[in-house]
Specification:
This protein is α/β, with parallel strands linked by helices and 246 residues long. Helices cover 34% and strands 24% of the residues.
């Protein structure tokens, strides 16, 4: 699972090449990104709840992000950017792989969605701060995790909301997300390096070092009966919301 590449300053070049090669297949729900298509509704449920709680909005509103800006870092071909735009946000998507940005722009145009897609390094982009910053299944692909988290914090508005997800470094995640998922073709081979996963404690330290504090945290679990779903079990994957501390 990955929404892939981030910036040339924090991402490994081989990561950009790996995910860029998958760009043409990104929007095929039965293709190499099938796991992301199954994951998207789960994380969107968390994001919607976090949005409603943070801005104390109407839970029945169809566009709770109307009038707000959103930045998705490591956006891939736009699987999260498009739902955020439909929730009313003015969306910017950033990715280091040119192929991903091209595929994202083509798909958004076909859907009639106006999304500002940018290829390259986040730290070198002339961007304002955003009300909502998201980065889903990206941290595990980043070489300098502290620098990456600092970049996310720098793009977050003073009263903004950050939503981030990443696999936990456990024996369970190694068995299911790396060895098992790649063996059965659920994710492309070479997608994950288990040693690059972070624990909840390490993630909290990275956030604190960037001046951020956790607001809410859940796990994304997988069972044969329920499939992927939000859970209190953090052993497979972590999704959280955070804000500037203080």
């Amino acid at each position: 699972m990955s929404d892939a590449t981030v910036t040339t300053a924090t991402i490994r070049p081989e990561e950009a090449a790996h995910f860029g090669a998958l760009a043409a297949d990104w929007w095929d729900p039965k293709g190499s990104s099938a796991m992301l298509h199954r994951l998207n509704p789960v994380r969107l449920a968390f994001i919607r709840d976090a949005i409603d709680r943070h801005w104390q909005g109407d839970v029945r509103a169809r566009k709770p992000l109307a009038g707000k800006t959103a930045l998705d870092v490591g956006c891939g071909a736009g699987l999260l950017c498009e739902p955020l735009a439909r929730l009313g946000a003015e969306v910017t998507g950033v990715d280091a792989a040119r192929e991903n940005i091209a595929a994202a722009q083509i798909h958004a145009d076909r859907m009639g969605l106006s999304i500002d897609y940018r290829e390259g390094e986040l730290s070198g982009m002339a961007l304002a701060r955003f009300d909502l910053v998201t980065s889903m299944e990206v941290l595990e692909h980043v070489a300098d995790k502290g620098a990456f988290m600092a970049q996310l914090a720098a793009r977050l508005a003073p009263d903004g909301l950050l939503v981030l997800s990443t696999p936990n470094r456990t024996l369970k995640s190694r068995a299911l997300l790396v060895e098992g998922a790649e063996l059965v073709g659920a994710v492309p081979r070479g997608t994950h390096d288990w040693a690059e996963f972070v624990t909840p404690e390490e993630l909290a330290e990275l956030l604190a070092a960037a001046g951020l504090e956790i607001v809410s945290q859940r796990g994304i679990a997988a069972t044969p009966v329920r499939g992927l779903h939000l859970s209190d079990d953090l052993s497979l994957d972590i999704i959280l919301s955070a804000r500037h501390a203080g």
